[in-house]
Protein: Flavin-containing monooxygenase
Amino acid sequence: MAKKVAVIGAGVSGLVSLKCCVDEGLEPTCFERTEDIGGLWRFKENVEDGRASIYQSVISNTSKEMSCFSDFPMPEDFPNFLHNSKLLEYFRIFARKFDLLKYIQFQTTVLSVRKHPDFSSSGQWEVVTESNGKKQSAVFDAVMVCSGHHILPHIPLDSFPGIEKFKGQYFHSRQYKHPEGFEGKHILVIGLGNSASDIAVELSKKAAQVFISTRHGSWVMSRISKDGYPWDMVLHTRFISMLRNVLSQFKIIRKWMMEQQMNRWFNHADYGLQPQNKHLMKEPVVNDDLPSRILYGAIKVKSRVIELTETSAIFEDGTVEEDIDVIVFATGYTFSFPFLEESLVKVKDNTISLYKYMFPPHLEKSTLACIGFIQPLGSIFPTVELQARWATRVFKGLCTLPSEKTMMADTIKRNEKRIDLLPALCGQRGNWMGQ
Structure:
């Protein structure tokens, strides 16, 4: 008898998880709280609670050649970098091709996922859902959490003394949809991730002046690389990967080469963008227009905000910008699993205690996996496909995980590295969004 798997969410991770379940002969049921598939990539004019939100102009930061699923190339007539509506179209074609919609229960919210009383022997889960005001409970042999992490906005107001006095408008980047309504205004964007850069560039075409405040700087790349090819087709090759591995033993040479590569387009120090730790290999910002908008003066790069007044912002370098009308907090998101018991997936300092960003190490049975809670240097779509393929094979018993001790040691080591990256990652929506 096929094992039953609950898939939470019908975004990209949920769709590919459904396909992997079917490929392995498992019996999936997907619970999607909204009326349609697509998750993050389905633009809506209004922000909805419990659902990811993007702005209208979002373009993918990774090319179609590097972003498609392994057995399903994108249509030839699609451009190399895709508007969110094109990506959604691809996911619709994918879902129809593999007949995935029949496994999805729409407008169904997962209220709780709890261990079955005999979990230690069966590994089963009790999943409680609600649809049209009616609650239902069902038992599943495994659970795949595909709910994403661009839902709960992180706005660290305590880090901005004087915000309570500020008379202008302020909001999280999650609320931003398009530049209309910001004509002639002085706007401060806080953060230097992909969302912050996109929003700053877009607003600079309408606003009187845009300021972008960064604590640590960031490497900025163009979508267009050598000979006009997409950046990820040039940088993500087997040869480059091998070279990185070889050079990892020669840190000084590797650091020098990385800095030369990142400064090839423009000198980041001259633009006030050079990362504080310039040798830290973190996710770069992908934006074709940011350097030129800085050259125009339409965007001015500022240091960290140390205080706000009724109408102005005071920065760490002692400068003050007056007559600020709007503040956009592009300060990232907080991991949240409201339907899981706190002990199942532990979140501390916005890092999650998961083996390989997927499996809770302390479970007696490896029957719960989180898919898509990872930030790769490249496209997330093939990455989540690999995660889903691995998870379903673990559920089926074809793969086994290491001991709890080994998994915990690996998880702690990875999280220590990630904590070093947190200031840099804060505000980034992921290099696979443009988004």
